[in-house]
Inverse folding.
């Protein structure tokens, strides 16, 4: 396998080069990334369609009854979450390892991703607790604080899998390296993540609007008459909606691991540049050197030379 520095995303990026690298890698690996994301979308949409929580029958707000209803779907929701994390790990594995060795096709990356899945899951559980606390603190300063906390947690999340796959699936090391690299060029990382999130939201909103066009009748009837809200739930279980949603997933999801690798490789490249540009050890450190025992020659026109007097 080629060294990590030969990866096409490994470079000290600017925001322009980051977006260019994102697009070039996305188009070059589009077919494989789209197919994996499309299959993931089909599976998740099918599993999600089985979770139909209908609160329309509740005449009054009763938190105990609603929590009891949610508990009935605890395991299906857990399966959906674990499946999503597994496919995310597979996509990251492909983006990281395939450019370094063509033998790392998608099938091999599926097997290889299992090595990182459990550590990734444990870190995500810890991140969920930290993220909830950060969002709570953000809410104390209203909207701006909550948005900043969300972007900050997203930035940390993006570093996790690339670090784990390149530097090893050690949980403690992954957490420390995530914090270190995320806070190196902190405002650049936050700004790039914010720009990426905005782009993804805009693309998703536009494509989601196109997906809903065949179902506008059911959607508007549910808006006009809340009692027909079950029509929206029925809409999400239709095969056409599942296929279209999976296609949306196939188009947008591959952008996430590519951008995550760009963030990581940018931080890694800058870190390596700083390391190799450090002063050499034989530079003057205050210790007496052999050449310090001899007088330095005077310039030719120095007035203190005997021949100039």
């Amino acid at each position: 396998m080629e060294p990590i520095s030969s990866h096409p995303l490994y470079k000290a990026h600017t925001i322009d080069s980051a977006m260019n690298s994102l697009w070039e890698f996305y188009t070059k690996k589009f077919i494989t990334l789209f197919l994996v994301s499309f299959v993931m979308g089909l599976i998740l949409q099918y599993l999600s369609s089985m979770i139909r929580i209908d609160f329309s029958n509740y005449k009054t707000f009763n938190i105990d009854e609603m929590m009891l209803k949610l508990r009935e779907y605890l395991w299906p929701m857990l399966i959906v979450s674990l499946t999503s994390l597994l496919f995310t790990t597979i996509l990251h594995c492909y983006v990281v390892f395939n450019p370094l060795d063509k033998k790392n096709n998608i099938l091999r990356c599926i097997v290889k991703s299992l090595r990182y899945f459990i550590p990734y899951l444990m870190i995500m559980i810890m991140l969920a607790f930290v993220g909830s606390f950060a969002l709570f603190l953000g809410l104390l300063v209203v909207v701006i604080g909550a948005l900043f906390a969300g972007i900050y947690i997203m930035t940390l999340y993006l570093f996790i899998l690339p670090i784990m796959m390149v530097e090893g699936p050690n949980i403690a090391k992954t957490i420390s390296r995530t914090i270190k690299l995320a806070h190196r060029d902190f405002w650049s990382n936050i700004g790039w993540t914010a720009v990426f999130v905005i782009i993804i939201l805009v693309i998703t909103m536009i494509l989601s609007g196109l997906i809903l066009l065949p179902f506008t009748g059911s959607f508007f009837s549910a808006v006009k008459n809340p009692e027909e809200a079950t029509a929206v739930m029925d809409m999400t279980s239709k095969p056409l909606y599942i296929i279209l949603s999976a296609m949306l997933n196939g188009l947008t999801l591959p952008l996430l691991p590519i951008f995550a690798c760009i963030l990581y490789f940018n931080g890694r490249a800058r870190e390596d540049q700083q390391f190799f540009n450090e002063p050499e050890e034989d530079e003057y450190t205050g210790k007496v050197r052999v050449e310090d025992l001899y007088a330095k020659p005077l310039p030719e026109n120095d007035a203190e030379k005997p021949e100039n007097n």
